Structures are given as C-alpha cells and as structure tokens.
Amino acid sequence: MDTWQILHIPDNPPIAPDQQPTVDAIASLIDPKFANTLVRRLNQISPLENLRHVKRVKKKFVEGVYLTGKTQLSVILCLASENGNQLESMQNDVQELMNSYKLSPFITKVCKYAALSKEEWEEQCKLWPTSYHPPTYNIDGITGFSEEDSQSVFRFMKYAIQLAKSSDNLVVNAAVIVDPSVKQVITTACDQTCSSYSPTNKITLETSCCEKLEAFISHSDSDGVLNHQTVHSNSFPDKSKQLCTGVSCLYPWQWADQQSDMSSCYWHPLRHAAIVAIESSAARDRYLFPSLGKIQDKSFEMDNMQSSSAGSPAKRQKTNSTNVHSDDNLTNGEGSSSLSARPYLCTGFDMYLVWEPCIMCAMALVHQRIRRIFFAFPNPDAGALGSVHRLQGETSLNHHYAVFRVLVPQQILSREG
Amino acid sequence: MSSLGEEYPDDTLTFMLLAIEQAKVAMDCLEVPVGCVIVEDGKVIASGRNRTTETRNATRHAEMEAIDTLLEQWREKRLSQSEVAKIFSKCKLYVTCEPCIMCAAALSFIGIKEVFYGCGNDKFGGCGSILSLHSSSSEPLISGGAPRGEGFKCNGGIMASEAVSLFRSFYEQGNPNAPKPHRPLAQQATQ
User: Fold this and answer.
1) What is the pLDDT of residues A64-99, one digit of tens each?
2) What residue spans carry the region label Disordered (chain A) (predicted)?
C-alpha cells in the first residue's frame, strides 16, 4: 500500500437495523383531547427513565370510510414487567389513571437503545416512534476529512510512529495528544511497562510476533472493516529485527513473564503509552492553570512532568527536530494557551496511537474525555476499539469518542527511525 | 459473580469498613467517594482513594492509587516482575464500588486473586455490569495468541448501602471546587 487513508471505525459492528433489541411496554389508545393532561401526568408518575429516546405518544393516521380519516393517538403508560401478570404489577397511580379515563391497555414493543444511524431509527419507528440524535456525527471527520485535515492527521500519525521506533530501540506503543483546533501537540508518551529489554528473549519472541502477523491477516479478513491491502502495513519491517512484543496494549498480561533481571530498570505493568500520556497532560494542565484547582506545590508538578518524560530521553529531541508541525506552534502554543480557556480534562483533544489500545487504555481515554482516537495498527487479541471489544459503541458510558484507523504507506514504516 | 447473602469470611466486613474509611477521606477532600484496600494473607498492605479532581487525571481511581502504592514499595525493594506477579496473585481487593472497565482490566493485567465490592456500577462497571473483564476469556485464542490472565473471583453487594449513601451525600452537597456547573455530573461518571 502506498497511500495514506483514514477509515472511520463505527460504533457498532454492522448489524441489521431490524435486529435491534426491544422491550415490552404497556400502551393504550387515548382520546386526543386528553392527550396533554395524560402525558403530563404520566411523565410524573411513570417516567421512561432509561428510554429517553422513546416518544411517549404514537400518532397514526387511520383512513376511514368515504375518504374521511382521523388521527389516532396512543400513549405509553409504563414498561411491562418481565414476568407474568402485567396489569397487576402496574403501579397503583397508573392503574387509577387508566380506570378514570377508561383506557384499554395493550402490549407494544419499543426499541431498547437509541438509534445510532438513520437506518436504525427508521426501523425503530416502525415499532414505536423514537427520537434520533446522532451522538457522534457532530465530531469532525466521521463524514470525511478535508484535504487539510487529512494532511494534519497523517503528520501526527507519522510523528507517533517515529516516537514508537525511537524509544530504546524497541518498538513500543506511542501516544500523542493533540489539540486539533490549533494543530498543537499537547503531550507525547511511550509505553513504560518495561523500559529496556533483554536480548536473550528476542529470538523466541520474534517467532510469536510472526504468528501474530498471520493471525492478524486471517482476523482482518473476517472482520469486514479492514481489507487485504492493510496487511502490508500491519507491522514494522522486520529487517531491523524490531519486535512488536514490546507493545504493552498487545500483550497486557505478558509483563509477569519477564525472565530477565530487570531490577535495575524502570518497569510498571500498567504504564501503557495512553495512560502515561493522560498523566502527562494532566500534569501540564495543573502546571499551566494552577489557580483553577486546589493550590498545589509547584515543584511537585514539575517533578511529575519531568518523570513522565524520563523514560525516553530521545523523545524531547524528537519533539524539537520533527517536521510534524512548525516550531512556531510548539513554542507559541505553550505560552499562549495559558491565556485561553482551560479545557476540562482532554475535552476537544485528539489521541494518536500507533496500535489500537487495550480495554484499560480505551476506558482511560473515555474517562479523560478524548474527542477522537486515531490508530495505525489493529490489536487483534486485546484491542478495545473494534477488535475484541468496541468501547465506542457502549451506550451506557457518559462520553463517546470517534475512532479512526489510519492506513500508513509502507515507505513510512521502512524508513529508518 | 457471587450475590448477597452468600457466606463470606469473617474479615470481609472488617476490610470493607476500611475501604469505606478511605472513601470518606476522598469525600472530605471533595473527591467522588470511592475507597479501597488491598489485602495479602489477611493483612492490609495498601489503601487508596479516588484522586481525580486533585490530579485532574480522571484515571486516578482508588484502585489505581493502591496498585501504584504497592508497585512503588516493591520497586524500592527491587522485587522482580515474577516476584511482584506472585504477590499480586495472593492479593484481595476490597473496594466500595464495582471497579470500572479500566480498573477491572488493570486488575486482570496485574493478576489479582479476588475482588470484593460494595455497590454495582451500572454505567461503567467492568465486573459484570457493562463488561465482564473478571471472567477469564472463553474465546479460543487465535493461533497460539498472547497469554491471557486467568481472571479473578468477584463478589458484589458487600455493604452496598453504605457505599451508595456516601455517593448520595456527595452529590447532594455538590462539589464547591468545581470550575464549571456541569462538573459534578461529569465526575459522577468517573467511578
């Protein structure tokens, strides 16, 4: 493959819109002249707590004889209980309302979850009307990237790949947090699960790395999201004997199996690149906006920022010499941003990761309110954004990011890092 | 997952009380009140509480704090990875609220033995509510695959009402430290 490309990884694996899960509700036809009163009362005594997307009232135009017609209204009284006797399990005040307006209840199906696409929504409304608020369509990029934005995405991904190669000569995962509004790097980090690596392990691990590549090929075929072209960019070129076994998110359980004596090195089983980057961006926030939080000891903040980048001394140099963005952005950015509004956590920021994150990192990025995630290589055994889990599609979460895979031209990967 | 009413060892409530003490410390610091203790061989070896507001790092949950405390201690003692893994495999965690998806994954990665929690976490729970990261994967591995953890035993509903009432009083009092009106709501989400 020799061109860059950005693919949106949707919230849901493709499933037929008519297969959406439903729940039973008790509804009744009502006289339109009581509609307002009834709806107001029902919203008080029987709110549809976890079904906010479901409309209370269904309107249906019924054709009458002799070309007349009328609008028929039905209203949801309450959810049906899961077992047995529906009417007896109804709340007393709903029952009373039903009796006083002489309603005759029936059971109807309503869709359990809010529609995530227009197709799903249209299908939902055939059962019972729902409202449709595309949660992520206001995130730039889902409907496509402008040429300028694409170029910017490619530059930041290239930067992340350079970081992944430059850290301790071992291929690790790298994370770059970017403020896309000013195209400025907020922070960078590499895996710190194991800051140096024993050469004795290399041969056997290399074999498993090759197996991994094959596994990915078969996996991607069945996945439907990725096509065969992407196989070429699945891993770094192996001529330099670089190994992807250092990538924490690919092998999150592996840290415990280290045989070598690592007592003199820094290691931590949970310091995956994304986690370290979040920590570093939080430290930056406390440093730039000290007055807005609790008053804190500034020297402590500085220490934290230092230590978060101590794992790879080459990183700083890289930041300064890279062509990813102009030096103006780097130097002005830090100074001027203290004047701008302080963002809440990472709201509005993008995360570039070389590998698809594991479930721990993916959830950490939800907590920290990242807006978009771009990754280059899938993580077939532990990936949480489409491979094993699909966290962007968990509707119960309070924050949702958009996820993109960036296909990287082979020449970028072969170039000596 | 075990449910309420099951017989637990006598010390379960003792340790959960200590976790609740930690949650109260968090509350006094205007943090979402979640606390935990980690126990090895019947002895508390670490405790932690939520620090997301103070650090402005929404990943600093009680569990992550306690785990980091231990790793720091063991680093000073120069323990090897296999020694650390061996100790974690004997440890039990007592936490006032079901670990979130991130923490449940972290607990699986470090190879904890068993988790006891108070109230469930119906928005973010990683031990049964939203995902079940504590149960070892039953999916067949693709071509040899990466080694996976064995999962960990999980027991919910221990002193759940105490944990819930802490949350309730936290959200009733609001968060006077919040820079924006929506912050208490957003923070509510973090555990």
Assistant:
1) 766 677 888 999 999 887 766 666 667 888 989 989
2) 304-336
What is the CATH number for A171? 3.40.140.10
* Token digits of residue B145: 């695959």
- Same domain membership, residue A115 and residue A184: no
Residue A130 per-residue DSSP state: B
Q: Tell me, yes or no, whether A106 lies in a domain.
A: yes
Would you call B59 and A258 a contact, using CB atoms and an 8 Å cutoff?
A: no
Of A139, A55, A134, the C-alpha closest to A347 is A139
Q: How far apart are CA B182 and CA A277, in angstroms?
A: 25
Let me know: does B25 contact B49? Beta carbons within 8 Å.
yes
Contacts of B130 in chain A (CB under 8 A): 394, 396-397
**Which comes out higher in pLDDT, residue B159 or A338?**
B159
The whole-number pLDDT of residue A208 equals 32
At A339-360, the pLDDT tens digits run 456 788 999 999 999 999 999 9
Q: What is the pLDDT of residues A380-397, one digit of tens each?
A: 999 999 999 999 989 889
Q: Complex ipTM, two decimals? A: 0.88
* Domain count across chain A: 2
**Chain A residues in contact with B128 (beta carbon < 8 A):** none
Q: Which CATH number is A116's domain given?
A: 3.30.70
Domain membership of residue A73 as a residue range = 22-127
Nearest to A282 among B56, B67, B123 (CB): B56
Task: Report the catalytic residues of B.
Answer: 63
Using a CB-CB distance cutoff of 8 angstroms, which residues of chain A are in contact with residue B100? 363, 367
Q: Which domains does chain B have, with CATH numbers?
A: 11-136+147-173 (3.40.140.10)
Tokens encoding A362 = 């993916």
